[in-house]
């Protein structure tokens, strides 16, 4: 009897052991503690496809060796020029034929000064296109909000009203500060105008009482202007105003005269210029400086001519 009982217990033990082993080593076992975190096989396939698509969409054609060598020379020229300046400098070059961008201190911020008038007028053109303004609308001069010394011609003979078109033209051709402020008024205030400009073109914020640009910010804005002017006549008008500015200095040199659309900015030691240069292979150049009084003016002219000559004479065929 005792022997039969021991055999029965052995059989039960063997059966239980077999069932336990089968349970834990089965391929169908689920880790319940992490079930909600583990994607299904179909989700894994979708994620892999998305990543592959993203990588392929960002892939760029391989740069030709001669272009690589050329861009190295451009970068060396920019770096050497930056090192020679006694003060702060940031500059960005964009080859509009290939889209190649090169920067030296390209993310360093500088007080924008009058370079902000370019995106301001682009925003005004957009407001007209959207029906929020008309070019013939008359804006009323408000001395408290609009008066500002410095560049411009309105200050010499202030009138009670000006058309939006006139203010648009004056703000670029003459870098008119009163015209700029009256255009700011169409946004509700200068702060609201700057907020709209930075959000629309740069997707960022700044210190609104001391608005700052980087050379890469300015290059991004000019690239939009250049690319859209062919289908946007008002952007083309801004480009033409920049070509006919009364400020024949900085990027407007004897070498580049008549072939550059540019906008200067000046405030104390902050001396900038941003422009599109019309060589056979046009390029954007944005240069921001902060140095001794007037030091930036001749400096910008020098680097402009250096890059112009490279782009005109050594660009790969």
Key traits:
single chain; 317 residues; alpha+beta; Beta-lactamase; two-stranded antiparallel sheet; 11 helices; 9 strands; disordered N terminus
Walk me through this protein's architecture.
With about 325 residues, the protein is of the alpha+beta class. It has one domain (about 75-315): DD-peptidase/beta-lactamase superfamily (Beta-lactamase), CATH 3.40.710. The chain has eleven helices and nine strands. The strands form three sheets. Strands 2-1-9-8-7 form a five-stranded antiparallel β-sheet, sandwiched between helices. A two-stranded antiparallel sheet has the order 3-6. The chain is globular.
Quick take:
By secondary structure, the chain is α+β, with helices and mostly antiparallel strands. The chain has eleven helices and nine strands. It has a single domain, classed as Beta-lactamase, CATH 3.40.710.
């Amino acid at each position: 009897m005792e022997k039969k009982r021991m055999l029965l217990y052995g059989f039960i033990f063997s059966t239980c052991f077999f069932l336990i082993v089968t349970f834990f080593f089965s391929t169908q076992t689920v880790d319940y503690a992490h079930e909600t975190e583990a994607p299904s096989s179909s989700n894994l396939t979708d994620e892999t496809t998305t990543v592959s698509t993203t990588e392929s969409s960002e892939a760029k054609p391989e740069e030709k060796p001669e272009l690589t060598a050329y861009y190295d020379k451009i970068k060396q020229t920019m770096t050497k020029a930056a090192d020679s300046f006694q003060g702060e400098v940031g500059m960005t070059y964009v080859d509009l034929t290939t889209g190649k961008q090169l920067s030296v201190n390209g993310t360093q911020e500088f007080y924008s000064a009058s370079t902000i008038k370019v995106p301001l007028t682009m925003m005004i053109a957009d407001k007209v296109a959207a029906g929020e303004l008309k070019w013939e609308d008359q804006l009323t001069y408000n001395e408290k909000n609009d008066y500002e010394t410095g560049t411009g011609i309105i200050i010499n003979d202030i009138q009670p009203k000006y058309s939006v078109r006139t203010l648009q033209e004056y703000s670029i051709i003459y870098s008119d500060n009163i015209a700029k402020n009256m255009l700011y008024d169409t946004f509700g205030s200068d702060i609201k105008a700057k907020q709209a400009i930075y959000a629309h073109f740069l997707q960022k914020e700044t210190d609104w009482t001391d608005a700052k640009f980087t050379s890469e910010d300015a290059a991004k804005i000019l690239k939009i202007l250049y690319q859209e002017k062919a289908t946007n006549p008002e952007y083309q008008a801004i480009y033409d105003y920049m070509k006919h500015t009364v400020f024949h200095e900085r990027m407007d040199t004897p070498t580049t005269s008549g072939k550059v659309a540019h906008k200067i900015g000046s405030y104390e030691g902050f001396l900038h210029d941003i422009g599109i240069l019309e060589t056979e292979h046009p390029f954007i150049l944005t240069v921001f400086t902060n140095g001794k009084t007037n030091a930036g003016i001749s400096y910008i002219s020098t680097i402009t001519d250096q890059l112009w000559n490279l782009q005109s004479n050594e660009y790969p065929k």
